[in-house]
């Protein structure tokens, strides 16, 4: 499909998809060889009825992490930071971990730390100090576990190396050089544009953004899809950034990509390797995929509703996507290995066996996950392959039971993050 045809399809079908999935507003851009087409539909807020347009800014959530990683790689290129140096080389007294391990989510400490340390330029410095008391889940480099806190630490490294606040580094070393004219570091900048508001349960969210202390991980950054594709094009054309797409750690079998690079999630597909990232904030979601073999990129932004099927249909129309996970009737879950209680700062999950030998998962959100709109759910777990099981309830991806607690039971329930088996709470 040519880029002009893709644009026609997008403008025709995006309004239908948004209405079908109760998405208040959406904006999408597609880049093929530097030629960009874009479309928008719906409203930025159901409270105001302001129309969503292609120059509206939406929050990109955790896609911010790739921009943060790019700033780090700029420091590496300048000789100011070394990837395999201990973090305490730059932040004296910080726990055992390397810069590379922070970039690829293998540092091993609890990663869902969203403590608000204020709005001042010292917020990242204060945030990093409080991480001294955060539990270490596994030894650095042992495995992958998605780590938001690690990216705030990277943001602080950037500040120390550059001698200026993180958001200024973002503007001076990415936005301005790349010509990203509709990118906002915070609400004060976003209000200068047409800014989307997140929606929870079909109503505008009570707050626009999360804490500034999590900005390098994705709590605030907003932009247009076109600006995000401008950033993605830099990764297709700047050879100095190619190393960010090299696999650093294999991912567990949970329906994500196949590996993680230095910031990028990597997808090894029959047609070749794609890279990208997803992002979620309070009621806003974003997806970015880049196919370097075809020189095609797509960015999709939404501000509420059932955004996953909308994103999936658009992605499948533009780039190759992984096959949907499916259960294997011949695979039998090992109830003794899997059953138990697993916990992190954002959820408590109980896995139990019923009288018929079926395995059930019941998850209760905690902390910030509650404020972000996550709800409790209970579902049967179906056999898939190996230690990977598939929730029967639609909308939930595979989970993996990894490690050993010393008694033949899984130590971790992995859903992207490694939740630890709670001691003394097994069933």
What distinguishing features does this structure have?
alpha+beta, 2 domains, 23% strand, Beta-lactamase
Report on the structure:
The structure is a single chain. The protein is an alpha+beta fold and 427 residues long. The protein folds into two domains: 1-323, Beta-lactamase (3-Layer(aba) Sandwich), CATH 3.40.710.10; 335-421. It has eleven helices and 21 strands. It has helices at 3-20, 64-77, 99-103, 123-130, 148-162, 166-178, 187-190, 225-237, 307-318, 335-338, 368-371; strands at 25-32, 35-42, 58-59, 183-184, 199-200, 203-204, 222-223, 249-250, 259-260, 265-269, 272-280, 285-291, 296-302, 340-343, 347-353, 359-365, 377-385, 388-391, 399-402, 412-414, 418-421. The strands form four sheets. The chain has an eight-stranded antiparallel sheet with strand order 2-1-13-12-11-10-9-8, sandwiched between helices. It has an eight-stranded antiparallel barrel with strand order 14-15-16-17-18-19-20-21. Strand 14 and strand 15 form a beta hairpin. The longest helix is centred in the N-terminal third of the chain and has 18 residues, at 3-20. The chain is globular, with a radius of gyration of 21 Å. The mean pLDDT is 95.
Concise account of the structure shown:
It contains 11 helices and 21 strands. The protein has 427 residues and is an alpha+beta fold.
- Would you identify the regions where 5 or more consecutive residues have pLDDT less than 50? none
- Domains, number: 2
Radius of gyration: 21 Å
What is the CATH fold-level name of the largest domain?
Answer: Beta-lactamase
Distance, first to last CA: 53 Å
CATH domain class name of the largest domain: Alpha Beta
Second rung of CATH, namely the architecture of the largest domain: 3-Layer(aba) Sandwich
Q: Which structural class matches the secondary elements?
A: alpha+beta
Name given to the CATH homologous superfamily of the largest domain? DD-peptidase/beta-lactamase superfamily
Mean pLDDT score: 95
Shape, please? globular
Beta content: 15-25%
